[in-house]
Amino acid sequence: MAILKIYESTSPVLRHKAKPVRKVDDAIRKLAADMLETMREAPGVGLAGPQIGRAARIIVVEYDDDEFSLINPTITWSSKETAMAEEGCLSIPTLYGDVERALEVRLTATDMRNKRVVIEADDWLARIFQHEIDHLDGILFTDRMAPGAPLRTVSANADSDEEI
Ligand code: ZN
Q1: Which of 12, 88, 148, 154 has the maximum number of C-beta atoms within 10 A of its C-beta?
Q2: pLDDT digits (tens, 9 = 90+) for 75-89
Q3: Is 163 a catalytic residue?
Q4: Is the previous residue joined to 73 through a cis bond, with omega within 30 degrees of 0?
């Protein structure tokens, strides 16, 4: 496995709509494994293709005991109920801001065995998926903040390894 370069928000790849991945093969499995290693090293809890310079719809997420490596994830349902919480991003180092997100989501994706999966997530895991899937569409958390809401240089959370 290898640690990949994490691209920052000034890189054009972070602003492009990523292309679907046609199928999972050994190259995609290696990429996902490298992304997981890169995410853990950072450390973070999620990483999307554009963040390592690949305009491909692939994400990795690790939260609590759950680990996901997925291609072509699509949110198929979002709860009307939302929650506001502070986010950071591995591509926007040292800046944090409050973002309103759906409290629960359901998504479909393809896993590393080429199986179609349906995932239901809530709270922080739902937030991570929404943040990562936004990356695949060239959207950063700062785009989702309320107009005029402040970016902070120090996280309000004691737990600082939440960058996604
Ligand atoms: Zn991010």
Answers
A1: 88
A2: 999 999 999 999 999
A3: no
A4: no
